[in-house]
Amino acid sequence: MADMIEEKWPKTLVGCIIFLFVLILLLATLVPNAMIDKAMETERNMAARLLPEKDLTVVINHTDAVYTSWMIHSGLKEAVANVFMPQAPTTVEAFEEKAGWWFEYLAKRGEALQKIGYQLTYRVLLALYWMPYFLVVLVPSVFGGLLRWRAKRLGFEYSSPFINNNAINLLKWGAILMVVSIILPAPLPPLLICTVLLAGLPVVFSLLISNLPKRI
Questions:
Q1: In what helix (H) or strand (E) does residue 25 lie, and over which residues does it extend?
Q2: Of the given ranges (16-25, 33-42, 51-60), which has the lowest mean pLDDT?
Q3: Cα separation of 100 and 33, whole Å?
Q4: Max intra-chain CA distance, the chain
Q5: Helix 161-183 to helix 201-210 angle, to the nearest 10 degrees?
Q6: Cβ proximity of 185 and 28 under 8 Å
Q7: What pLDDT shows up at residue 204?
Q8: What is the pLDDT confidence band of residue 103, given thresholds at 50, 70 and 90?
Q9: DSSP per residue, 33-53
């Protein structure tokens, strides 16, 4: 039974799920709003230096629209605000005096979660901004990798399992790091996203495909 569970849920996947859960819990309870505001401001300034003003405006407008749709119109914002006991007129005054700090803390945590949600939306849409350029670079890389692989099949050139396996591992850990970086309340340089999408991933895909086993 344990072996079956291990096959269905690899240790790496279970570890990543636990790590993400703990990370979200820490963000929801400990990260100050000022830190989130500073990260958003820094990241926005970096994007302003990299992107044309018109394109950045489009990204921000799309972020506002998508955030409003999934956070406000869906009722999620109200649900988050009412997760814990709200401060109401019917609350005993003596309890309010003693536990006022608790209500203030919950209000700040709800505000922090909303800011993180907005930042998450902004980062996803900023990454999607590079998708057309990414596809332009990716298609030739994949095509070149296929041609290289076919040449190896017809000749005597060695197809490296080492490179193939490491390329797969890079893609796996890259996906995990991407999810973590989207959630983290720290400035994420847009130039880093651009470099990974336009330079790193096409090379990894090309190496992965060109070093596939000769017999599949």
A1: helix 11-29
A2: 16-25
A3: 19
A4: 84
A5: 150
A6: no
A7: 92
A8: low
A9: HHHHHHHHHHHHHHHHHHS-H
